[in-house]
Amino acid sequence: MKNFKKFTAAIAATLMAASLSIPMATSFTASAAADVTITQVGEGTHVYTAYTIFTGTVTKDADSGAVTLESPTWANPDKAADLLAALQADNTIGSVFTDCTIDAASVAKAMGSINSNTPQAAALAKVIANNKTLVGTAVTSTDNVLSLDNGYYVIIDELAADSSVVNTAVSAYILQVVGDEAIELTAKAEKPTVDKQVYDNDDSAAEGDNNGWGESADHAINESFQFKLTATIPADADFAAYETYKVVFNDEMSAGVTFESIESVKVAGNDTDIKDNTDVTSTATAGQKGGKWTLTINDILKYDNDLTDGATIEVIYNAHLNPDATIRTESGEGVNTNNNKVSLSYSNNPNATGENETLGTTTEDYVWVFTYDVENTKYKNSVADGNELANAGFRLYDSTGATEIELIYDEAKSAYRPIGEGEKGVEMKSAANGVFNIIGLDAGTYTLKETTTPDGYNKCEDIAITIAATHKENANATSADLTLTETNGDNDIVNKSGSELPSTGGIGTTLFYLGGGCMVAVAGIFLITKKRMSKNAE
Questions:
Q1: Is the per-residue pLDDT at 418 higher than 90?
Q2: pTM (2 d.p.)
């Protein structure tokens, strides 16, 4: 009896049961019913079914708190021999039951030798659950509550048919001793989370440390940058129940984003890039504009064989904004466009493998990528309707004015934009209405130079353009805040007609005029002197 008490105490304390809190009396009486309330993990409709292994009298030691199932009796004695045979046949725990007889106390004693929260304990629960037809009558939960008589049970968590794809996880099998008083259990399940971030250049545009990964960024059209997807599996002993663990990244790009390539796939703790492994598959294709794609790792346990310590899986991919990207203008358009999102599908049932495997799916996580415009109109002599000037040529340069930002005219957008692969930059020309707008620029400082001046007009000075912005994810995590400020982001550019003659200015001109004045004075004196000399000669 001493050894059997050890078994029942171990079972009652933690054997395959999560979060157990039972305010107990000194003893229980046989066959009294108690409510077992289960707190589930995640969403969806869960159904909990309890199958009786043993019945008996449950008592609790007032000093040690040990809970004991006295006088155990098989709940289904006609099938006891078959259940014992199944226990003996299991590769993990079979040796524990080698010397057992069909007597309930003999089998209970062997069970008591298995330590809680171990692979052996998980194997015990799995053998019993997989042979549930060999134990007692099933009791099904109502609103996650089971009403059970004194005894020892295996509790099985199952999802309703319409709940397999929600953000939830199915509990590992629970073994539980039940007495007279209410029990509260937390399902033996945990689920992962997913995060998507985008890399931003150090252009002083974003709030905080924008030189790195964040929830928002700004980039030029056709400028390559990176997204990072991170799945985090929390540390939890219940992950030991999984024989395999699949994750699927479900990425969705807005129409303005073009996929380029997978940069890397890594499992934290292992620097090896596994993107080219045969069990890592992706549906994305180079050049894909917007839309959905997936990256699947069939079994994370192949790369991290102990998920109980937690794990992270990181995917980095290359992309760029394409001409369909929505432009963020100073008037406020485009604040929540070019958003991109990801969700994670994951193994959510440690009790189902192979063809029976089910997946849960997390909520979506968003990021935003902004791009900006500069509006320009060319005028002759003054800014006024009717004074628009065509065929003035311009090129855009960086802040130093030395490196050209090559642009091409986009007929569909009626504006100039940064060139893409295989395209060659052109000189911008003001149209008949004087307009030559630029779209798809990153935040930063630029120099606009007039490179072709219409005949009869004077060349205008270079124009410094500054695009500055602060952007961040909003508190609701499904939208973004952005404040855009531009210096010379909306330009009215005037060319004066006529010819401005060159002038060195300063003292040189003054001396020129002064010298000329002296010559006039000398000439006057010479004429007066000459007249006097002629008069005296007479």
A1: yes
A2: 0.83
